[in-house]
Amino acid sequence: MSSDLNDLLDQKKLESLSHYIDMLLDAICIVDKDGHFLFLSAGAERIFGYTREELLGKQMLDMVHPDDREATLHVVDDIMKGQETTDFENRYIRKDGQVVYLLWSAKWASNEEFRIAVARDISRSKRSEAIQSATYAISEAAHHEESLSALYKRIHQIMQTLLPISDFVIALYDEPTQNLTFAYSSIYVDQESLHAHLSENLTSWIDSKKVCFDIENGWIKVPLCSAEKVIGSLIVKVGAEHINNEDSQNLLEYISTQIAAAITRKQLHDRLRFLAMYDHLTGLANRELFHDRIQHAISRALRQQTELALFYLDLDDFKQANDNFGHDVGDALLQQAAERIQSCVRSTDTVARFGGDEFVVLLETINHQQDAKNIADKIRQAMAKVFVVGNCEIYLSTSIGIALLPAHGNIEKILLQHADKAMYEAKRLGGNQYII
Prior knowledge:
Helix 5 (123-144) runs antiparallel to helix 6. The chain folds into three domains: 3-121, Beta-Lactamase (2-Layer Sandwich); 126-277, GAF domain (Beta-Lactamase), CATH 3.30.450; 287-435, Alpha-Beta Plaits, CATH 3.30.70.270. The strands form four sheets. It has a five-stranded antiparallel β-sheet, sandwiched between helices. A five-stranded antiparallel β-sheet has the order 7-6-10-9-8, sandwiched between helices. Strands 12-13-11-16-17 form a five-stranded mixed β-sheet, sandwiched between helices. The protein is of the alpha+beta class. The longest helix is centred in the middle third of the chain and has 32 residues, at 246-277. It has helices spanning 3-22, 42-48, 52-55, 69-80, 123-144, 148-160, 191-200, 202-208, 246-277, 287-304, 318-325, 327-343, 369-384, 412-428; strands at residues 27-32, 37-40, 85-93, 99-109, 114-121, 167-174, 179-185, 212-214, 219-226, 229-237, 307-316, 350-355, 358-366, 387-389, 392-394, 397-405, 433-435. It is built from 14 helices and 17 strands. The protein is 47% helix and 27% strand. Residues 13-83 form the PAS domain. It comes from Methylophaga sulfidovorans. Its cofactor is Mg(2+).
């Protein structure tokens, strides 16, 4: 067989092989020792978004994500030293600006003085991993964050790992009042103009339960739906490439359901915790929470050798008012009494309702027993003022028993017994006074 015929057959084999190579989804790349593209398969066009003509001669490193360049250079050095690499991951920036995750296998061909590498697009699996991780993180945050505000901040941080978000807002919708409140917003948001825009279009996006795009301002609004009910909206500002982007829309819709579930769970948890630790009528601490607070206060006072005071209060003539005006008025009296007591103490002190018309006040730190006397007198004067409930004007007073640590003991039970006994003594003496 002539050499010309052999050359022709070899050329046909090469062309046939090249055709099969171009069918591969992976990109086959050949670069020179300085990292410039010499050959690319058709898969490279699909992965990088450039034509082969645009890529030939282009410096490979120019397309590597800035955060991955240093690690990529270290791997290139190893390859140039003869080390074959089969599992290196990095990110490239496509022609359209999107980030693509690649898994590389590469080898240096010393005889030909070029690197040959195969790149596989693993963006889809990476995105699935990121979504799964974000979903888990949001669920974990819903269980462990101490407050809803902390939960919203954590959700913001998690979402930034999925999308290039510049502004982030969680607006909650109150169905009975049909009002929107910003439960969380990034510092860049013009809340006034955003609230006006949302309120103007409130009915449409509440009813549609669909993702809405504000292309002019770069906003994506995603309804937060829980049990077929819209509880609010997730509103994010992203780059132009994500506006009307189907992948971004699907991602936001999926994550929004996780956020709505997390918010609902956290609200329920906080509500149950409130019911367990606070009096449902007055919103004051109940016995359980008071027990926890005084235990910590006693330990701190003993450790720091400071004083604290405990008040036991009872409303004089409350039973008579409750019987004369009814339980609804009685409940209103208790609520007003709770507010008056709280207004007389510091935010660091604890006011608790033990039941009926009995209240307890914990002054965590006092410098002298005169401090306790001053606050007790302040409470007594506040309670002596007329109570107005509807058309009723009612006068009450209060009897207060005071226990001091360390003067009267350093155990909760002993302090409560002393304060209770002193309160009954104040009541026996006619009420509207305090006894230590």
